[in-house]
Each structure stands twice: as structure tokens, then as C-alpha cells.
Amino acid sequence: QVQLVESGGGLVKPGGTLRLSCAASGLTLKAYAVGWFRQAPGKEREGLSCISGPEGSTYYSGSVKGRVTLSRNNAKNMVYLQMNSLEPVDPSVYYCAADITTCHREMKYWGKGTLVTVSS
Question: Based on CB atoms within 10 Å of each CB, which residue in 32, 64, 93, 98 is the most buried?
Fold first, then answer.
């Protein structure tokens, strides 16, 4: 059974940093496209970053480019999202997702998310 489990969310002040982690079981993340998304209550899910496969490129949305870094630890079967200079947006649940094909909005496997609140 495939499971993705996010962690690392919490309350952080504007301008602060946070590193989210995504631990996988039941699949080998390095073989998959893996992305990070976020969703605030009442809003559409937003794609933040995605790595497209074993040797694929990493993509960043314009809203976070330059402030976040996606990385992968193949030995631990984990993916991370380092977020810097966080902006005071609506509290959002951050999800990691994986798909054997490529990065897209409806990836096959999703975690349950971790809540991030940026507020002073």
C-alpha cells in the first residue's frame, strides 16, 4: 500500500523558514515525479514545485520561485520542500504527491497534508 506522509508544518512568522518533509512507503520516490502543492480553505489547490522523475527537471511556480527548494533523499525515500522568506498568506495545507508519469495537477498518490500558518 502506498503512503505519503508529510511533516514539518506549523506556525511561522513572516520572513521565516520552514522545511517540509514527505516520507514514502510502498513506492520508490526516485522513480516518480514528486510535487508539492498547497490549498487554503475555499481556494483551489496550487502547485508549488515538482521534480519530473529520476533525472528530471525541477519546476517552481512563479509565486514561490526563488524562495523554495525541492530536494530528494533517495536513500531515505523522502522529498523535502525548503521554504524561505515565507509570506503571510492564508493558512494552507501543504501536500506532497507522486505519479509515475509526470508532474500534473491530478497526480496519483497524495499525502494527507501538513498545515502551515504564516502569521505574526
Answer: 32
**Model pLDDT, residue 56:** 78
Whole-Å CA distances, 31 to 49, 55, 103, 113, 119: 17, 9, 12, 21, 36
Q: Spell out the residues 6+ positions from residue 52 whose beta carbon is closer than 8 angstroms to its own.
A: 33, 58, 59, 102, 103
CA 13 to chain centre: 19
Cβ proximity of 92 and 39 under 8 Å: yes
User: How many whole angstroms from its chain centre is CA 10?
Assistant: 14
- Amino acid 31 reads A
